[in-house]
Design a protein that fits this description.
The complex is a heterodimer of chains A (about 325) and B (about 450).
Chain A (H helix, E strand, L loop, with lengths): L23 H18 L13 E6 L5 H12 L3 E6 L4 H4 L3 H10 L4 E6 L4 H6 L5 E7 L5 H15 L6 E5 L6 H12 L3 E5 L15 E3 L2 H5 L4 E4 L15 H8 L3 H4 L7 E3 L12 H4 L6 H20 L9
Parallel strand pairs in A: 1-2, 1-3, 3-4, 5-6, 5-8, 6-7, 8-9
Helix pairs in contact in A: 1-6, 1-12, 2-12, 6-7, 6-12
Chain B lengths: L4 H6 L10 E11 L4 E10 L2 E6 L12 E3 L4 E4 L1 E6 L12 H10 L2 E6 L10 H14 L3 E6 L13 H7 L3 E3 L8 H13 L4 E3 L12 E2 L2 H5 L4 E2 L2 H17 L3 E3 L5 H12 L4 E6 H5 L21 H12 L5 E3 L7 H4 L16 H10 L5 H5 L4 H7 L14 E11 L18 E11 L2 E5 L7
Classes of the chains: A alpha/beta (about 325), B alpha/beta (about 450).
């Protein structure tokens, strides 16, 4: 797919490690590309040849269904050969270090490695040791850039814009890479960002992230155009960060009454997988304001856009 | 003591059920909330204070039922912020009914009960149970505390938000200290979101593990392992550091040593929402009262040195300490009739808190206003209760006491089911004459018949 010619802009990043490194124009560019990828994905013939002959490795140190299959599909639709590696089960148990794994994979001459790792900073460490492009599919509580991009695309397509919208991000902000990437992206796109959660789930210094901080759920929803729910892991609801699931639901669960505090046309989002009845009720998750299914579709499109943009930077000849 | 006109009047001139209108006249009104200490009277109607002050006299209320309170002090009913009860689970030690009868006899009209029952008060349904049970059986107001950690195990925090909604007035692990600093930080952070009050017993469980009394020369001479004051200050200092991060409403349930006062004073100076309590025992007794292994003086924190006691009195007088509690802790005889090291901690006290405190008044350490404040206005502020004051429109929770009557305590006369008082056979000066809860007489002193 080709972009309109008036775009005298080039995407100049070798890797996509985080939203932090992107400019507003980079983001706009990726979202425009992704719009075209949505159109492509809705055709009968879904394939392009942008990555034909290229090899994509999905290197996941942390279990994932959604993100991994989304990247796999994106790679395949662009014509790449995709290999999935779940490392949790093999090398890690044999004691191989992250860098040894990286060097081994590098020797197989991939063009793009998509990495998810449970430690913040692991992906950029790996990126420094390989010759190919690296895409961060989530590193610890640091960043998950493609999630923020797909969220932005979903918002933009539903609302027509991102700037000046009030976006409330709810739940486990502390442990969430989704929240961090979204906060950065939404700020770059001039949205008004709010975060809300119990203090135990808010990271220190959050008030300096360019967000309004709330601990009262309903107050945070007042006047929101977008309500972005986050997943709360069950092991954090057993008295460590939050006393129990039922208490969390009582004070921070998105039900119809809570949603009524937001703007009437507020968009409801969730990066998945959802804990129904904990952070969100089914009536809202499956209701008319929910964009949760669109998010999944946009996920494939955004990843296609990212892979394609990176591939355009590839040297046309292979160094010896 | 012979019958006085007072007592004759007390026997029937005013309605005991609190209905209708009556007056309490010619008393010495002591109301810390309005800083008033002077002559006056109170008019009560349908359980509420309608009028009070020097202008309430015989002439002003002529024709209405009234009680002549000459020679007595009329003060707001006391609030005791730390009472252990055995209900549910250990009703042989104390029930809500027996604890509230003891409270009424001591001029205490609100008791805050601790969650270390069986089952532990760590679930909404149990808070609700306590509130209903108290409504049906207790003579005085009962405010339940809920646990900070499930089962008081010090591992997972309780449903602080839901428990507060159910009616828990504050959160505490009772006589347990939360040793895990990370957990404590999270609890404080979480409690802050709900504006919940955390009341913490500050005694390092490791440093005090083997100890049974105040560490020092006396303990060494009688061969008992000691608990140094540092066991208290380490936890208190830690908590204050955490509060700098979370700014949670925090109450040190009972401090016992001079060093702890410094921590409290420094925290208050920094503007942290920190308050401190002291038990009546630590204001009136010291380590020497343990004497020949008297287990009724085995307490947690332990009775400290005389210097520490004097520091507590001073801290109370200058406002560094906000609240006096009885730390009423009924224990069965079998748990107390043991070698000192094996005996249970704790002493009953809700019934004797006021009269024991009067020792400080008679000893010249404090006047009545500053002495009564930490048992009325102080805990009311701490707990957010609109009680502990003689304001117009306030609930008529009132204590009448004769500040001078001398008497000797016989522990068998205590209303508590448990009799483990450190004041057995002690001489007191001052006696509770009558206690009102919402205008209703819940206690009236009667001379023991000469049987």
């Amino acid at each position: 797919m080709a972009l309109p010619s008036e775009h005298a802009y080039t995407f100049r990043h070798r890797h996509l490690i985080g939203i932090e490194a992107l400019t507003r124009f980079d983001i706009q560019h990726l979202l425009e590309r992704a719009d075209l990828a949505v159109a492509l994905s809705r055709q009968v013939e879904k394939k392009s040849a942008a990555l034909r002959g290229r090899t994509l490795i999905n290197l996941f140190f942390e279990a994932s269904t959604r993100t991994q299959s989304s990247f796999e599909l994106a790679g395949k639709r662009l014509g790449a050969d995709v290999m999935n590696m779940s490392v949790g089960a093999s090398s890690l148990k044999k004691g191989e270090t992250l860098l040894d794994t990286a060097i081994t994979l590098n020797a197989m001459r991939p063009d793009i490695i998509v990495v998810r790792h449970h430690a913040a900073g692991a992906v950029s460490l790996l990126a420094r040791k390989v010759d190919c492009a690296v895409v961060n599919a989530g590193d610890g509580a640091h960043e998950h850039p493609t999630q923020a991009l797909l969220d932005a695309l979903t918002i933009k397509r539903a609302k027509g814009r991102i700037e000046r919208l009030t976006v409330t991000i709810c739940g486990d902000i502390r442990h969430s890479r989704v929240a961090r990437s979204n906060i950065i992206l939404l700020n770059k796109m001039d949205a008004r960002v709010r975060v809300v959660g119990p203090s135990t789930l808010l990271p220190a210094g959050i008030e300096r992230f360019g967000v309004e901080v709330f601990t009262d759920f309903r107050a945070a929803l007042e006047g929101a155009d977008v309500v972005m729910m986050l997943r709360l892991q069950r092991e954090r609801m057993n008295g460590s960060f939050v006393p129990s699931m039922r208490e969390y639901f009582h004070f921070f669960g998105l039900d119809e009454a809570a949603l009524a505090c937001a703007n009437p046309d507020a968009l409801v989002m969730h990066p998945g997988p959802m804990n129904r009845g904990v952070e969100i009720v089914s009536a809202v998750a499956d209701g008319p304001q929910s964009a949760i299914r669109e998010q999944v579709e946009m996920g494939v499109a955004v990843r296609m856009a990212v892979l394609e943009a990176l591939a355009e930077q590839f040297p046309s000849t292979i160094p010896a | 003591m012979t019958d006085t006109p007072n007592q004759t009047a007390a026997s029937g001139a005013i309605p005991g059920d609190g209905q209708g209108r009556f007056a309490l006249l010619n008393a010495r009104l002591v109301d810390p909330a309005s800083n008033y200490d002077g002559p006056g009277g109170v008019v009560v109607e349908d359980g509420v204070i309608r009028d009070r002050g020097a202008h309430v006299t015989d002439d002003a209320v002529s024709g209405q039922p009234s009680l002549d309170c000459s020679g007595w002090v009329l003060a707001p009913g006391l609030i005791d912020a730390r009472v252990f009860v055995g209900e549910p689970g250990a009703e042989h030690r104390e029930t809500l009914a027996s604890a509230s009868a003891a409270a009424a006899a001591g001029g205490v009209t609100t008791i805050v009960v601790m969650p270390d029952t069986d089952p532990v008060i760590d679930d909404m349904a149990l808070v609700d149970f306590l509130i209903r049970r108290a409504r049906d059986t207790a003579l005085v107001h009962v405010e339940p505390c809920a646990a900070l950690t499930n089962g008081l195990q010090g591992r997972e925090m309780t449903e602080i938000g839901l428990l507060k909604k159910a009616g828990a007035i504050a959160f505490t692990d009772g006589r347990n200290t939360i040793a895990d600093t990370l957990l404590m930080r999270r609890i404080l952070a979480y409690a802050r979101d709900f504006d919940a009050l955390v009341m913490h017993h500050t005694q390092d469980p490791y440093l005090s593990a083997a100890g049974v009394m105040h560490e020092g020369e006396f303990a060494s001479r009688i061969g008992l392992p000691g608990i140094p004051p540092a066991a208290e200050t380490i936890v208190l200092d830690r908590d204050v550091r955490l509060l700098e991060l979370t700014r949670t409403r925090y109450h040190a349930a009972q401090i016992s040593c001079a060093e702890a006062l410094k921590t409290i004073a420094a925290a208050k100076e920094k503007g942290l929402p920190v308050t401190a309590g002291v038990s009546i025992n630590h204001l009136t007794l010291n380590e020497n009262d343990v004497g020949t292994y008297r287990t009724f003086c085995k307490l947690s924190p332990p009775l400290r040195s005389e210097d520490d006691r004097l520091a507590m009195v001073e801290g109370l007088a200058d406002g560094r300490i906000d609240v006096i509690v009885s730390n009423h802790d009924p224990q069965d005889v079998t748990d107390k009739r043991q070698p000192f090291e094996m005996a249970a901690d704790g002493a009953v006290g809700v019934e004797t808190m006021l009269v024991a405190a009067l020792r400080l008044y008679h000893g010249g350490a404090m006047d009545l206003l500053p002495l009564l404040r930490p048992m009325t206005e102080g805990p009311a502020k701490l707990l957010g209760l609109d009680r502990g004051q003689l304001t117009q429109g306030a609930r008529a929770d009132i204590v009448l006491f004769d500040p001078d009557a001398p008497w000797v305590l016989d522990r068998d006369d205590l209303k508590s089911l448990a009799k483990n008082t450190p004041f057995d056979e002690s001489l007191f000066q001052g006696r509770v004459m009558r206690t009102f809860v919402s205008g209703k007489t819940v206690y009236a002193y009667r001379e023991k018949s000469a049987a």
